[in-house]
Specification:
There is one protein chain. With 469 residues, the protein is mainly alpha-helical. It has 3 domains: 3-111, Orthogonal Bundle (Fumarase C, Chain B, domain 1), CATH 1.10.275; 116-364, Up-down Bundle (Fumarase C, Chain A, domain 2), CATH 1.20.200.10; 368-468, Orthogonal Bundle (Ribonucleotide Reductase Protein R1, domain 1). It has 19 helices and 6 strands. The protein has helices at residues 21-27, 30-33, 37-53, 59-77, 90-102, 115-151, 171-196, 215-222, 231-236, 239-266, 293-316, 331-351, 359-368, 373-382, 387-404, 413-417, 427-431, 433-439, 448-468; strands at residues 156-161, 164-170, 198-199, 226-227, 273-274, 356-357. Helix 3 (37-53) packs antiparallel against helix 4 (59-77), helix 3 (37-53) crosses helix 6 and helix 6 (115-151) runs antiparallel to helix 7 (171-196). The structure holds arginine. Residues 29, 33, 89, 115-116, 119, 325, 327-328 line the site of arginine.
Length: 469
């Protein structure tokens, strides 16, 4: 071996000159993959125990390795660990430190494995925990929404299509629409977790290993459902990272839509809600401003996670089997996705249930845009008018209302009967906002009674999931 070689690197045997200083820095990942130290140590301990059980290591070697790794974990946690970019990544930083601490036995830890199955295992362990944390925040957010929805079942606001007033809604119903989106997000996360919980460890570099390993043993210790059936696939594919990021991008697309609505609602043009001051910021120049920045930032954060998804898809698309170093580039987008989605969920789980509805303003807005026009058409249908004719009749009444600045409910009976003689005195019941809501009393409808039923169902679901976990 040339004495040019850096004494730190663990793979210099076949090299005759030291790594170019820039290349060393360019290829290093320890500054970001050190985040995986707990998973890396956990995987190494399971691997060492398995090697000893299979007779590849002695009991004394196993004990030295396990204890050494535990001490290294404490060292990292206390901030006393010296990370070195010359040792490339989290794996070799820890392995080198282990050998420095315990000597010969440390050099045997890497028997029968590769950094390829090691990193694939670490990332899966990491993502499994991240998904659990995301689901816990999702649960907290859902709970807050459901409780707010329960309190606001009878609050009426205009529902929009094309951002034009469409039909009156229960505010509780609107909030439960958000809840439903989050339920599916949680299912997507759980689904992703189930698919990723397959163990690469034992695949070694790409083809498996010639040692008599016991993969069921490491699998049980690490909490995987089973060892991967194909070593090439196990070390190579990062579909679980793409899948998680896709689920996160969809989740954030949902929170971004919620953000957009809250931003509109806090605008004086709507003035439907107030957000507590602690979630808002002011303007450096305009003294009157109170801005919904948390919601705007959540909306903005969605862009970076959407970008990460495209990044990960693109990273994978041209890789031949099996492992390629390109995959080192999956860490930063993945970690940032985890951080971003957790931060956004935390912000919304805190803020959204604390929003204060301005019920009078919501109600007044729902009264404005002829929001019960459909109810009038339905009324005419019940009186024997064909729906298409009823639509035209009500259209004419609305035209009249627009021209004369009068709402349907405020027209006198003679005026209304001028549009159709099928209209009777009882028409006013269907023209009220409360009547409009109450009439939609079926599964999925906006009647307050339905909203209360859905709130009860949602509480049961949340209680059940909390009890199961
Ligand atoms: N830092 C690498 C990664 O993130 C670890 C695996 C390296 N394997 C290798 N043969 N260089 O993917």
């Amino acid at each position: 071996m040339s004495d040019n070689n850096s004494s730190q690197q663990l793979w210099t045997g076949r090299f005759t000159e030291a790594t170019d200083a820039f290349v060393e820095a360019f290829t290093a990942s320890e500054h970001f993959d050190r985040r995986l130290y707990r998973q890396d140590i956990r995987g190494s301990i399971a691997h060492a125990r398995m090697l000893a059980a299979c007779g590849v290591l002695t009991g004394a070697e196993r004990d030295a390795i396990v204890q050494g790794l535990q001490e290294i974990e404490a060292e990292i946690e206390s901030g006393g660990f010296q990370w070195s970019p010359a040792l490339e990544d989290v794996h070799m930083n820890i392995e080198k430190r282990l050998t420095d601490r315990i000597g010969e036995a440390g050099k045997k830890l890497h028997t029968g494995r590769s950094r390829n199955d090691q990193i694939a295992t670490d990332v899966r362990l990491y993502l499994r925990e991240a998904i659990d944390a995301v689901c816990a925040e999702l649960m907290r957010f859902q709970r807050g929404l459901v409780e707010l929805a329960g309190r606001e079942a009878d609050t009426i606001l205009p529902g929009f299509t094309h951002l034009q007033v469409a039909q009156p809604l229960s505010f509780g119903h609107h909030l439960l629409a958000w809840y439903e989106m989050l339920v599916r997000d949680q299912e997507r996360m759980a689904d992703c977790r189930r698919r990723l919980n397959v163990m690469p460890l034992g695949s070694a570099a790409l083809a498996g290993t010639s040692y008599p390993i016991n993969r069921d043993m490491t699998c049980a210790e690490l909490g995987f459902d089973r060892p991967g059936d194909n070593s090439l696939d196990s070390v190579s594919d990062r579909d679980f990272a793409m899948e998680f990021t896709a689920a996160a991008a969809i989740l954030l697309t949902h929170t971004s839509r919620m953000a957009e609505e809250m931003i509109l609602w806090t605008s004086p043009m709507f003035d439907f809600i107030d957000l507590p001051d602690r979630f808002c910021t002011g303007s450096s120049i305009m003294p009157q401003k109170k801005n919904p920045d948390v919601a705007e930032i959540v909306r903005g954060k969605t862009a970076r996670v959407n970008g990460h998804l495209v990044g990960l898809l693109t990273l994978m698309k041209s890789q031949p089997l099996a492992y390629n170093r390109d995959n080192q580039e999956d860490k930063e987008p993945l970690f940032d996705t985890v951080d971003t989605v957790l931060d956004c969920l935390r912000a919304f789980a805190d803020m959204v249930p604390a929003m204060e509805p301005k019920r009078d303003n919501m109600f007044a807005a729902a009264k404005k845009g002829f929001s019960t026009a459909t109810d009038l058409a339905d009324y005419l249908v019940r009186r024997g008018v064909a729906f298409r004719d009823a639509h035209a009749i009500v259209g004419a009444a609305v035209r009249y209302g627009v021209d004369n600045g009068v709402d349907l409910a405020d027209m006198d009976l003679a005026t209304l009967q001028g549009f159709s003689d099928a209209i009777g005195e009882d028409v006013y019941q269907v023209l009220t906002l409360e009547g409009s809501l109450a009439a939609r009393n079926h599964i999925g409808g906006t009647a307050p009674e339905q909203v209360r039923t859905q709130v009860a169902r949602a509480r049961e679901r949340l209680d059940r999931i909390a009890a199961d976990s």
